[in-house]
Amino acid sequence: MRKMTDLISINCVKLLISALFYTCVLCSSVEQKIYVVLNETVPCVRLLNATHQIGCQSSISGDTGVLHVLETESDLDWILSSGPHPPYMVIMETAFFNRCCNTCLSVCVCVCVCLCVSDLMCFSCRSVMMRMKNSSRVAGVAVIISKTGLADNFSPHTTCPNQNTGVYSESYGSDLANCNGTVWNPLGNGLSYEDFSFPVFALKDENQTQVLRKCYEDHNQRVNGSAPQYPLCAMQLFSHMHAVTDTVTCMRRTDLQNRFSINPEVLCDPLSDFNVWTSTRPLNNSAKGHAADESVVIAATRLDGRSFFWEQAPAAEGTVSGIVTLLATIQALYPVTQEAPPPRNIFFSFFQGEAFDYIGSSKMVYDMEKNDFVIDMNNVHSMLEIGQVGLLSGRSLWMHSDPVSRQNKSVDTEVSEMMSRIQSAAAGLKLTVDHPSVSQPLPPSSFQRFLRARRIPGLVLADHNTSFTNRYYESMYDDAENLNVTYPPGLTPDEQLVYETDAAKSLAEVATLVARSLYLQAGGEENNLNNITADPKIVAQLLYGFLVQKNNSWFRSLLPPEVTKKGVNSILSPGPPQFYIGLGPRVHGPAHSVTRFVQYILANLTGTVTNLTESQCQNPSELSTENKDLFSYFWVSGPASVNGTREPFCVRASVRLSKAVSPAFELLEYGSRNYSTWTESRWKSIRARIFLVASRELEMLTLGVGVAVLLLSLLVTYFISSKAELLFSSARETPTTTY
Fold first, then answer.
1. Domain Nicastrin small lobe, which positions (predicted)?
2. Of 433, 447, 362, 365, the residue nearest 401 (C-alpha)
């Protein structure tokens, strides 16, 4: 009897294990039947600085809400007050991302509150996002990325970018601090600097957007104003952030974990990457501090941008126009400086992290002051910075100067002479060059960080007199179209790569102006200016690579073979690069993709092809004929032949990288007011999915039935267990007795 009972028990266990295994196998397929995963989504993430946190996040288990498409004012009222099924996941077109829903009786600017021109009564004209931020009935927001219905302007940045870390303060031009007198970005609504307690995602895939709309129309759309019936279409967004409060708190908690935890967890990371620099005469990279007999003219621009959504920063006018102009300037200027070198060295620098309180320029100035760079501040003769030069509103460029430093007579004289040289260099070009009022301060620029260290002569060249002409400053819509980079229909990618758009021709003229101006500023002879002309084809290739398609034949030829072979998983994935600085080498290893592109493009424009082998190129210090202190060495893929093969070769160039990380993190001054303290929170999961949700009553009924079935199962199990001998007994076999 016992053996039979044991056999039955074993069979039951085997059956149970088989059932569990079968259930586990089917788990994924069941989940797929319940949920529709949305892949092409981009989150808004949390950033922190010395005083506060900004961005968005979900709860640790994700936030869930019933879908509702925002199309009218009544939809917003339904979401915020009258809808019977809160909380809601709001789906909105980009036009509603910044639109005032209530109408002012006078002209106003829609920011956090309505700012009216006249004293007429104005209703609560608050942006859609700000109204939803203050409501407990909103679980999250999904924004459909589309050009349809795009507003005439959209800038989620502040009206006064980098206002707390520039040169103007209580001790330096106090009447100019905080954009007093000149509001540089009047269209800024500040959304990127708000802290939202719910997740906000961007939807990039049109097909998945249609799936969302169909789910909403089939299950959630109101009929004659009446509430929809269950089941309803719901969305769940996961974007839980580990860091909270501010950088000081985050870094302190991370340090404590590193000291006392067996498995420490990093909560946030400083925004960081690399600056890229080169010079017309090589500088000894192993020698730090003051460079003897060197006087340098710095030509600079920024490498980064940002937007409301993580790593969605095309930055066409805001950043790319400056990068392309300075690269084309170097291409035009470099051959002449080698044949007829001017007395002064020209130092070209591309600063990373400038959108976040001047990370890159602050680090370079800090290193110069600490004698930890190839030159110091005393080597700097003057500076010309390239700002936004996309010429969006005409053919005029403006030379911005600092009115405070110009109170010094020698500085004022040099600045005036710089302006004269630039205007002289503009002769014969289809550009007009002028300067604003002498009392007007500098726009947001890296030059301000140099002025904090020393009052050097300098100018910022831009296409705006006062406020920015860029209507989409620091937003995801500052793209190729905003810079008027468009192509005729029917062109192949290789034809688009070399097609000279109007924007390319305009920026080539700007680059020619800058190159000639720098040559004169460095002391070059005026009779060499006609030999300095930027190539529109190079500009066209740069614009295509930075704004349309980075995975193109020219970029592939400039990069190392190991990068080009990785395809879609490398920095040559399809589409344009994004200009958000990110977390740099501390987290992601190599430099940011844009940084590497600029580094290798510079090597191509200024370098010399050598006959070194790959191993020699990677270890040039082993060769007595090569000088690693003066040059860097790049093993590049080379252009493709007719049959598609490439012949890699080694390029020698004086192109260098230097760290772009805020000095605050080297000094461990996480609450610094002098340097950038921006960090990015870490997270474990970023995902989105939709599903059908039943009514609360049905859910409770289902739960009740489940509990009842569980109790009944326990009861039956107890009964069977207690009556096992009776239920599983059989006729006893007559024992066989052996004598």
1. 43-99, 123-243
2. 447
